[in-house]
């Protein structure tokens, strides 16, 4: 059967199932067990490219510095140039004049080994991602071989970086478990924020500098993962994704405030036209709520909400992102257009949320995703000014706070010379 017909059939099934049409049965999985963090190469078609990565963003609140790293896998089917296993490390230091840098190493794909769900080892154990339990993960890395450096920006290729860290989850969330079949078929990027607010301890070494990371409110780590066959496609910056992250640590991690939002728009090549899917988990101390909002035919005035979170006494009305203050941002790889200001609106009968995120160009790293025949890129700003405003539907303010350590992204298929 033609792939597109199959996809259209699956979506029709979705739309006309009385139990599914219009709402999700729950608001996602809180603290997902290891199974949902699994390596999914085998679940996907071997005739299409496939990528997967596990990404971490570690905040040192006192030093106003964010360290970011990722372990990734990229299998190609046509053009094998970018096939491989990549390890990324970068930093944004808000006290520095030239605050951002990144280094990416590449190893052959067969040096990526995985057992159990996601016990990953790359380059014979130089890089390790080892889940000890559902909520504890050991993260290790040793970048010390410049012959494997695939890309370096604002940093010397020969920089030695090691990390040995233990993550302990405070809050994680997966909002797409019941969409996995559709995701496999369409092949669009999937997202699991299984550890989006976690404690962290251990150390990072960058050349002769040692950074001690303590299990204290001065440090938190964000962990997520993505996988799929394709990146958002269609013409121009309209087909894009955005990511918004805020963790406000507390003395007792149970009291943390953690907000994660992702929203992406892509052409589907089916009768659903352009689709937008938005996901968010919001934890305010012991209270939390997940929000999931999937819209089809998003390119027409009579767009249809396919699925939205709803509970007994609770409904999600709207979920959108507005982007303004566009600039051209340029690096060695080319120029992209990015919005310096992004505002997330989530309107529900439980909470009404507005996140106003303001960034400046020097906060951005261009994250690179090498895949079949192209490199997709995504602009990530760290140390973003975020005004978090959360009200009850009655108008009563629950949280009104401005932080200067938010994270955001804007990604679309922008021209890139690699
Ligand atoms: C992870 O895999 C390694 C082999 O690469 C093994 O030595 C280790 O025991 C595994 N850890 C767990 C928790 O399964
Ligand atoms: C976004 O959602 C908010 C809250 O429901 C609404 O006021 C606003 O009009 C929406 N914006 C767009 C562009 O749809």
Walk me through what this model shows.
With 418 residues, this protein is mainly β. It contains two helices and 26 strands. The strands form two sheets. Strands 2, 3, 4, 5, 6, 7, 8, 9, 10, 11, 12, 13, 14 and 15 form a 14-stranded antiparallel sheet that branches. A hairpin with a 4-residue loop joins strand 9 and strand 10 (136-143). It is globular, with a radius of gyration of 20 Å. Bound molecules: 2-acetamido-2-deoxy-beta-D-glucopyranose (2 copies). One 2-acetamido-2-deoxy-beta-D-glucopyranose is lined by residues 115-116, 119, 121, 130, 132. It comes from Anaeramoeba flamelloides. Keywords: Signal. Residues 1-21 form the signal peptide. This is AttH domain-containing protein.
List the helices and strands and how they pair.
Blueprint: H1 3-16, E1 22-24, E2 29-30, E3 50-60, E4 65-75, E5 84-93, E6 100-107, E7 112-115, E8 119-122, E9 127-131, E10 136-143, E11 149-153, E12 161-174, H2 180-186, E13 190-206, E14 209-213, E15 219-228, E16 240-248, E17 257-267, E18 274-284, E19 287-296, E20 304-311, E21 314-331, E22 334-348, E23 351-358, E24 364-371, E25 374-392, E26 397-412
Parallel strand pairs: 1-20
Antiparallel strand pairs: 2-12, 3-4, 3-15, 4-5, 5-6, 6-11, 7-8, 8-9, 9-10, 10-12, 12-13, 13-14, 13-15, 16-17, 16-26, 17-18, 18-19, 19-20, 20-21, 21-22, 22-23, 23-25, 24-25, 25-26
